[in-house]
Write a structure and sequence with these properties.
Elements lengths: L6 E5 L5 H8 L5 E3 L20 H4 L10 E5 L9 H8 L4 E6 L2 H14 L7 H4 L22 H11 L5 E5 H6 L1 H11 L26 H22 L18
Parallel strand pairs: 1-3, 1-4, 2-3, 4-5
Helix pairs in contact: 6-9
């Protein structure tokens, strides 16, 4: 049998992919990888003639009537990942979670600081600290990962629109049943019988307070045009993200 997984939660980091992965594991006909974030397609491999054994061994292949997927949210951001996924399975389906980029940046920084990967305060990290990022960076890309438009453009240049499902994190919180119905339909599966409203995070980082208003204003201005372009590309209504009074509903 020519094994191929059916879908990937490909982005974006700190946008609720752990919560979505957890929910999908509860569906009787969906099988997720034995670990979240396999990092297979951003790994250091021989990509001219790759072996997919290391990826496939993370799945149970005993059931025929299921769909299989994994969640590694760096894939939409990191160079080469989407092209490698396309070479692996041109018909694969991709789910992309998007969160207000200013709040995503702050959550990303809090995670890095909690892990002792970041020594700069948030205000410096999103301003002068951006010089550390270069073209791409796994840790310090607080701003860069929130520039969703160029990631969406690359996705749409490589895969047909019908193979990509863009979702907004706050909509999953407001309407978990409706959004999960969209996802199961996209994956060709029956809907969930019930869907709880819960936001699961991989690492608690609650000791930093709220984002300072001056930093929020700086990021909102930086992201404004990108949010508008992202809305055009994805078909999502993101007009609420453009309002200074917007606050995330998840309470994190």
């Amino acid at each position: 049998m020519d094994r191929r997984i059916d879908f990937i939660i490909a982005g974006a980091q700190k946008c609720g992919t752990t919560a979505l992965d957890t929910l999908l594991r509860r569906h009787p006909n969906i099988r997720m990888a034995s670990i979240k974030e396999t990092h297979f397609f951003d790994g250091n491999r021989e990509w001219s003639n790759p072996s997919y054994e290391a990826l496939h061994e993370l799945f149970d292949w005993s059931d025929a009537d299921v769909v299989r997927g994994e969640a590694t949210p760096i894939y939409t951001y990191w160079p080469g990942c989407l092209e490698r996924i396309r070479a692996y399975a041109r018909s694969i389906r991709l789910l992309v979670m998007l969160r207000h980029p200013s709040f995503r940046a702050f959550s990303h920084w809090r995670m890095s600081a909690t892990r002792a990967e970041e020594s700069l305060p948030f205000d410096q990290a999103i301003r002068t600290g951006r010089e550390r990022v270069g073209s791409f960076h796994r840790v310090y890309s607080y701003v860069e990962r929130g520039l969703y438009a160029r990631q969406a453009e690359r996705l749409l240049s490589l895969f047909p629109r019908e193979q990509i499902l863009f979702l907004a994190t706050d909509e999953l919180w407001h309407d978990p049943r409706g959004q999960m119905d969209r996802i199961t339909t996209f994956l060709g599966q029956a809907p969930f019988t019930s869907v709880p409203r819960e936001y699961i995070v991989p690492l608690q980082s609650d000791d930093f307070g709220e984002m300072p208003p001056s930093d929020r204003a700086c990021l909102d201005a930086l992201f404004r045009s990108d949010i508008e372009r992202t809305a055009e590309l994805t078909g999502l209504d993101l007009s609420r993200w453009l309002r200074p009074e917007y606050r995330e509903p998840m309470g994190i």
